[in-house]
Design goal:
2 strands
Amino acid sequence: MTTIEQLMRDVPTSFVICEKTGATKNLVLKAIMDGAKDFDSIKETVDLCNDITCHNRVEALLKMYLPIYETLYGIHKDNQHDQKLPQTLTCDANSCKRCNLNCKK
């Protein structure tokens, strides 16, 4: 059985995520790359409706791509805080010491 995540992964970036507004997979992925972390923050920059199908498609893209973009673009994330790290992926010596990344000290 194919899951919505598999379908969203396999469709082209031109695929229409929101049938009512015409918003595409590409627009949603760009919003994620720009820092959106949930449906509401994506909706701030991408014209999306509140339809359940649209919501489920966006959530599927978030589930797959958010962890990838967080890793690729050096977003340090743990339960305590979120912050962008420099390209070298080094943590501040005064950090919480619970970094999920294997940072250089």
